[in-house]
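USER: Write out one fold?

ASSISTANT:
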Amino acid sequence: MTAPNIVLIHWHDLGTRLGCYGHTDVESPRLDALAEAGLRFDAAFCATPLCTPARASLFTGLYPPRHGHHGLAHRGSRYREGIRTLPMLLGDLGYRTALAGMQHEAVDPNSIGFDEVLQTPSRGQFCGPVADLAEDWLARQPADSPYFLTVGFTEVHRDYEVLGPDQRDEDPPSQDELDRVIVPGFLPDNEHTRTDLAWMSRSIARADAATGRVVDAVRARPDADNTVIIFTTDHGMPFPRAKSTLYDSGIRIALIMAPPPAWQVGPTVVDQLISHVDLTPTLVDLAGGSCDVDGISHAGLLRGESVERRSQILSMKDLHEIYDPMRTLRTERHKYIRNLHPGPRLILPTDLDESPTRAGMSTDYRQLRDHEELYDLQTDPDELHSIAADPAAAELLATLRDQLDQELTRLGDAAVDAWSIVEQPE
């Protein structure tokens, strides 16, 4: 089988908020169509709900203790010395590699292993101009050797009104837009939240259209039949109790893989667990190579084969703007969260704290968190009622606690559980 071309498109802060993931209040026809032509992963999760370390795990196949990113690149976080990124690994296999637009793993985008870096002059890599760059690059590439193109959009990061340099959407959402919004169960249903979600829906529609332009440019090439297209995002949506948390609303992500048409695989909905750390080994496997990473190759699924099901996924957080360490182990049915530092239930990043949704919330989130949380995702999908203190769940709690300990030991995770050394209020 000839090594396929690989196009990886990623957005900021989307979670799963697309029509094809059941969000009927969102217009995303181009990504919905891509999902209908390929594999839609319904149980995909990031390794951490923070921009830089999430993308670092995506592009290395490693968890944060291994790749070194625990915070944000523009605040000093760096890869460990000697880390091999996906463009480096594919370059070793003979791929031409290019980044168009957004990345968040380094202050200098030229340091992360791409042959070419194409970015707009503005600080924000907005979807329209980035799609222009991707279309131009694709039009210039020969079809005699494989390529890897990464296309990154700033969208759908806040502020939603910002359309580009010196461009703003000045028209507030209409009543029809507000009425159409379906508010997730973990958020208050009020005008503040509805307005916020309506703004986000506009951003999604713009980014979806730009994504469609990139897909069209790929499919117009003579080697389109041997090109795999992947779409994903870094982590959950930028709302309280989502981004920067280990609840599913913070770590569950959209992941769509459209195998080369010539392979005749799909459409398929994949319900088995998959992590962002699995993407690098999957793509390297498709390219004919292998790599020693934390993730597991799922390349067989794109070839129409079965692969071993994951029994669990791991995700973690250390700091965004404030040190807030926590770890989670999730199975298909249950979620165990260990909060490593005392504090309020939610520590909100600045963009969330200043959001319309936050303005319409109560202050309950400032109450002290529990050391451990345990959820039955079948009966409590929004993770609103922890059963960690329920005697009936004691055995399950002990089992998941032990499994998490084993994973963290394997990774050499040096995070200290400060709970036992900090005096707690009565």
